[in-house]
Design goal:
The chain has 168 residues and is of the alpha+beta class. The chain is 30% helix and 27% strand. It contains five helices and six strands. The chain has helices spanning 41-53, 59-62, 76-88, 111-122, 159-166, and strands spanning 2-12, 20-22, 25-27, 91-101, 129-134, 145-156. A four-stranded mixed β-sheet has the order 1-6-4-5. β4, α4 (111-122) and β5 form a beta-alpha-beta unit. It is globular. The relative contact order is 0.24. Bound molecules: zinc ion. The site of zinc ion has 5 residues, from β1 and α1.
Length: 168
């Protein structure tokens, strides 16, 4: 038994300088992203992919930006809550594949760190997490912000695997 979920998010660059958070990692950048939380566009896409795979309400519904509670929130909390719901519904993450789209900054030196951070959040091996980077070659939104796509595969947790994970 398997499920898949897809997530997408887009944030524009802030006029103020950094910090830029992507995949739970701080990335040196002359510009940060605008957003109600810490604006981690990649973690938002991942959280929505997880929620989508189990038919749960999306991130905007669970954590409305109209609520002052979530101002400046560390987006790892969103992924942790989505992951908690996934496990509670009887699923475990098989693998996750993501693409980050922006013209700057260059993400190649940071991809491995992002994979590691995401693998820790989702308690899966680094090999089960992919972070790919694309530019728009100056077209579309590439110079104005950062977009992220995520797709996740969930496997049905067998009773023995659930026990060993819960007993961690
Ligand atoms: Zn977002």
């Amino acid at each position: 038994m398997m499920r898949v979920g897809i997530g997408y998010d887009l944030h524009r660059f802030d006029s103020a300088p950094g910090p830029l958070k992507l995949g739970g990692v701080s990335i040196p950048s002359t510009r940060g992203l605008a957003g109600h939380s810490d604006a981690d566009v990649l973690l938002h896409a991942i959280a929505d992919a997880l929620l989508g795979a189990i038919g749960a309400p999306d991130l905007g519904e669970l954590f409305p930006s109209s609520s002052a509670k979530y101002r400046g929130m560390d987006s790892r909390c969103f992924v942790e809550e989505a992951h908690r719901r996934v496990r509670a519904a009887g699923w475990i993450v098989g693998n996750i594949d993501t693409t980050v789209v922006t013209d700057a900054p260059t993400l190649t030196p940071h991809k491995q760190k992002m994979r590691q951070a995401i693998s820790r959040l989702l308690t899966v091996p680094v090999s089960a997490v992919s972070v790919k980077a694309k530019t728009t070659e100056g077209l579309a939104h590439g110079a104005k912000g950062i977009a992220a796509h995520a797709i996740v595969l969930l496997n049905h947790a067998t009773p023995s695997r659930r026990r060993s994970r819960d007993g961690r």
